[in-house]
Design a protein that fits this description.
By secondary structure, the chain is α/β, with parallel strands linked by helices. It is built from five helices and eight strands. The termini are far apart.
Length: 163
């Protein structure tokens, strides 16, 4: 007797259908379809969710909005002849730094102003500009998309804003 003549005593079932596990036929994968054939692709909604969106609930706008201050607050906090700038506003604790950065400040025309003030490096609305000029104030540097103010003549010119 030789080794190749030996036979087993036990009988084994030869089920080799579904490949993977001991469940036979479809191996618990069901019938057909992409889930039965391999790794399933993500659902289309999952793909859409992963694409970054432009605006909406979780997304900040492209431009940072300025901090808004009204004329009545400036009239209360500042004395005659003082300069209003981001530095003086933060020193008087009227505004705070955003993310430890200097942000833009916009002065709006809510309330009246009676003191002569100098505005330096702040955005100013048209009506606030008129009220400041009427009170005898001055504007050194205005960074506004809608207004252009020259230091010598102080002429207000409307400029088309690009969107």
């Amino acid at each position: 007797m030789q080794l190749h003549n030996l036979k087993r005593n036990t009988i084994r079932k030869k089920i080799r259908v579904g490949r993977g596990g001991k469940r036979g036929k479809t191996s618990g994968k069901g019938h057909k379809g992409q889930n039965a054939r391999g790794t399933p692709r993500p659902a289309i909604r999952d793909v859409i969710k992963k694409i970054p969106k432009r605006r909406g609930y979780n997304f900040k706008g492209r431009k940072e909005k300025p901090i808004v201050i009204n004329l009545n607050l400036i009239d209360k906090k500042f004395s005659d002849g003082e300069t209003v700038s981001f530095k003086t506003l933060s020193d008087k604790k009227i505004i705070k730094l955003r993310n430890s950065k200097i942000s833009k400040v916009k002065i709006l025309s809510d309330g009246n102003i009676t003191k002569k003030i100098i505005i330096d490096g702040c955005l100013v609305s048209e009506k606030a500009l008129e009220k400041i000029k009427k009170a005898g104030g001055d504007i050194k540097l205005v960074q506004n998309a809608n207004l252009k103010v020259k230091n010598d003549n102080v002429k207000v010119k409307k400029v088309k804003s690009s969107k």
